[in-house]
Amino acid sequence: MSVQQNPNGHLVNGRCLLIPGAQKAGTTAVFSLLSQHPEVATPRQKEPQLLSLREPLDVDAIQWYADVLCASPDKLTIDASTSYLASPLAARRIESLIEDPRIVIMIRDPARRAFSAYMELWKRGTDLERRSFATILDGLERAGGTDIRDSEMRLLQESDANGSVRLAYTATGYHQRELAAPEFAAEFELPEWPFAYFSGSIYSAAVQRFERLFPGAVKIVIFEEFVRDPQSIVNEILSFVGLDEFNAAPAQVARYRTVAPKGRLGKAMQHSTVMQALQRVRVLGPALSRVVQRFFYAQPKLSPADYNRARSLLHAEYEFWYERLPATRSMWV
Question: Which of 32, 47, 134, 325 has the highest Cβ tally under 10 A?
Fold first, then answer.
């Protein structure tokens, strides 16, 4: 194993890039493009998520994380776990376990990110998220107050109790089910993080926490700028981590857009084994899968009315970024 704790207590020695989110803000596309670089050690899991688990970390869990990272003293290691952004525990663990971390945080129009995160769970199956986006907005607006996280958590607990959501999705066992990890005790510090659509769009507090812990080692990337010119953004990130520029394959970015089934047939396909079976067919499988997606899937649309309602709930976040990064004023509309 090439990853081990050194005498200073670091688990990962050498350069390491962490992309702690935000979820649904281009982290997977950036990870994919960076992984093409010859000086990047591509991990076995894009999102091991381990540093956001509850204390204490199981010894077997740490061993699994070390194996997954595929670290090399001569290459850049990447961990692109989107659960890290909201987790103070993850930030402190990065500080103590990673010898030379660089942090890239992707941010996106907060209201659109909230909707995209909602669609990510909705499309996975009706047993995870049964509420409409408008219903969630209704609940948050009724709650009132200024602390949207508290309101969202209360609404989530109520929805879990009445069966509208299934928070147990990220309870103990998530790593075995989703990441094919070996048996070890694993529970997220914030188990509800995939359902925190609105508080997950409040990047400002997390960004400032990372900047306090890692002064000069945090880079903010605006998702909309990345979509507009992925090659330039990838080269900026490579310069930030000390690697030479190279020509990535930015056409792959379109592969990672959020799509959801449309119509009854599309929903039936979503819950069948057809898509999984197509992926296993060599040569033609991926092409056939794309054909199916073209006809039965579509990029979900956020209505102007719901967008404006979501913006109102996240007003303070917009104002923070408008002042810090004025370019967002013209992009987040």
Answer: 47
Residues 142, 204: Cα–Cα separation, whole Å:
24
Both tokens assigned to 262: 């449309």
The DSSP element (H or E) to which 155 belongs, if any, is helix 148-161
Mean model confidence pLDDT for the chain: 85
CA distance 294 to 279: 15
Instruction: Please state the three-class secondary structure of 131-146 as a single string.
Output: CCHHHHHHHHHHHCCC
CATH of domain 12-109+193-253: 3.40.50.300
Q: What is the C-alpha separation between 292 and 294, in angstroms, rounded?
A: 5
pLDDT confidence of residue 278: 57
Residue 31: closest CA among 176, 226, 170, 269: 226
Q: Does residue 93 or residue 8 have the better pLDDT?
A: 93
Q: What percent of the chain has pLDDT over 90?
A: 56
- Taking the C-alpha atoms of residue 156 and residue 139, their distance in angstroms, rounded to an integer, is 10
Helix (H) or strand (E) holding 79: strand 76-79
Give every CB contact of residue 103 below 8 A, 6+ residues apart in sequence.
Answer: 17, 18, 19, 20, 94, 210, 214, 217, 218, 219
N residues, the chain: 333
For the chain, where do the domains classified as CATH 3.40.50.300 start and end?
12-109+193-253
Task: State how far the Cα of 309 lies from the Cα of 102, in Å rounded to an integer.
Answer: 35
In this predicted model, what pLDDT tens digit does every residue of 242-275 receive, in sequence order?
A: 999 988 776 555 555 566 566 656 656 555 555 5
SS (H, E, C) 277-320: HHHCCCCCHHHHHHHHHHHHEECCCCCHHHHHHHHHHCHHHHHH
Enter the DSSP assignment of 263. H
Question: Distance (Å, rounded) from C-alpha 129 to C-alpha 253?
Answer: 27
